[in-house]
């Protein structure tokens, strides 16, 4: 079981609720950071800060395309977000890139695909020491330089 922070803009509330129900079915604990704020960056930053602080294992953010919340979340030190729209890149976002936040576009991703992507993402785990390790470490080093 993982602890998941989730949030969205008002237009994505329907898909967010479907994802929350699906997370519960998968046995994960989910905290809703809301969907009322029309400035999606606010909820994205709030979720990203909570995940980066270690209060949650992972975060899920939803807006119309998933791009805006992805951009906002990636501005938070320690938050690593990826836009997930297909099974392969969703799995690799964890296995190769060790992201801790997935973003989804409610206007471009149907509910069944979203549930499939969430299932894949929640089951995936990063294994340190693989081929991607030097690449990931370079990203972490650069981020650390920028925020010290």
From TrEMBL:
Tell me yes or no: is Isomerase among this UniProt entry's keywords: yes
Which keywords accompany this UniProt record?
Isomerase
The protein's matches in Pfam families, at most eight in alphabetical order, are given as: LacAB_rpiB (PF02502)
Q: Which GO-annotated molecular functions does the record name?
A: intramolecular oxidoreductase activity, interconverting aldoses and ketoses
- Record bears the keyword Iron-sulfur: no
GO terms of biological process kind: carbohydrate metabolic process
The record's SUPFAM superfamilies line, in alphabetical order, gives: Ribose/Galactose isomerase RpiB/AlsB
Q: Which NCBIfam families match?
A: PRK05571.1, rpiB_lacA_lacB
**By what name is this protein known?**
RpiB/LacA/LacB family sugar-phosphate isomerase
């Amino acid at each position: 079981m993982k602890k998941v922070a989730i949030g969205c803009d008002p237009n994505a509330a329907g898909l967010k609720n479907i994802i929350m129900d699906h997370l519960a079915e998968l046995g994960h604990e989910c905290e809703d950071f809301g969907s009322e704020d029309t400035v999606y960056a606010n909820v994205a930053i709030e979720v990203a800060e909570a995940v980066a602080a270690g209060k949650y294992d992972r975060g899920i953010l939803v807006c119309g395309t998933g791009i805006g919340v992805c951009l906002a979340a990636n501005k938070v030190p320690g938050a690593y977000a990826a836009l997930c729209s297909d099974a392969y890149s969703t799995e690799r976002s964890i296995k190769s890139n060790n992201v801790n936040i997935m973003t989804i576009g409610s206007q471009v991703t149907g509910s069944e695909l979203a549930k499939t992507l969430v299932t894949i993402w929640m089951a995936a785990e990063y294994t340190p020491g693989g081929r991607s390790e030097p690449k990931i470490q370079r990203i972490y080093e650069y981020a650390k330089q920028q925020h010290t």
